[in-house]
Amino acid sequence: MVPGDLRLTDEQFSKILSRCDPATARLGEGFLDPEISPFFDGEMFQLLQDARKAWVCFESIGVYDFHPDIKRQATIMRVNIDHRLLSYPFDHYGTHRPMQEAIRQAFVTFSSAHYCVVQPSSKIARCHVEDLQNALTMTDLKSCWGTASKALLWVLFHGAHLTFGQRERPWFVTALARVSQSLQLQTWIQTRAILVRFYYVDRVFQDSFRKIWEEVELVRNSLSSWF
């Protein structure tokens, strides 16, 4: 952990939110919904609350005039969020929350994409995809996660993003077809409206995620023709 990260009061954070563009202001708010929060343990829920502040500030640094100290502290906080996400399984050895673990894995994918382009064929991507898929298969996928189905949609998009050209890609796309149908999503605009409430940035993911959505539409149309 790097010392000196950001400590914002709720009032200070509200002022920052009021200056943000709508998409940035919604980053991470989906994980605070009452129907989703019970799926997390207390420390992970706190991590997600801290992450929302870090990412909203980080995405706003290049757009709005922040004091240099705030810029430095927001960057440090983001680094510390990554550290907490990566070390969580080791700091909480023996806990068994498959949905929480799948969400943690997807969050790592989201964050990594801002540092560098991770090639889907790389060893780090292959290991990460294996961990994410294992976590997902340990959940009740047939339920589409019930009240947390929108969070599952977000997780699966990140899985599909990291498996471009890989053998696991159809698995994630097919799962997305099932979940998107359960949510009655018909367009990319409707889908994006859900994604931005979790962690999604057009600048980084739009091209990839739109291609994924096109594949999802193809699967859904094919299935409707046959069954």
What features would you describe in this structure?
The protein is mostly helical and 227 residues long. The protein has helices at residues 10-19, 22-25, 42-60, 68-91, 98-115, 123-137, 149-161, 169-182, 188-195, 202-226. The protein folds into two domains: 1-95, no CATH class; 116-227. The chain is globular. The N and C termini lie far apart (53 Å).
How many DSSP H or I helices?
10
Major pleated sheet: none
Unreliable spans: none
Distance between the termini: 53 Å
Radius of gyration: 18 Å
Main structural class: mainly alpha
Number of strands: 0
Share of residues in strands: under 5%
Q: What is the molecular shape?
A: globular
Which bin fits the share of residues in helices?
55-70%
What's the structural domain tally?
2
Order of secondary-structure elements: HHHHHHHHHH
The chain-level mean pLDDT equals 89
How is this fold's topology laid out?
Blueprint: H1 10-19, H2 22-25, H3 42-60, H4 68-91, H5 98-115, H6 123-137, H7 149-161, H8 169-182, H9 188-195, H10 202-226
Name some characteristics of this structure.
227 residues; globular
Short structural description:
Helix content is 66%, strand content 0%. With 227 residues, the protein is mostly helical.
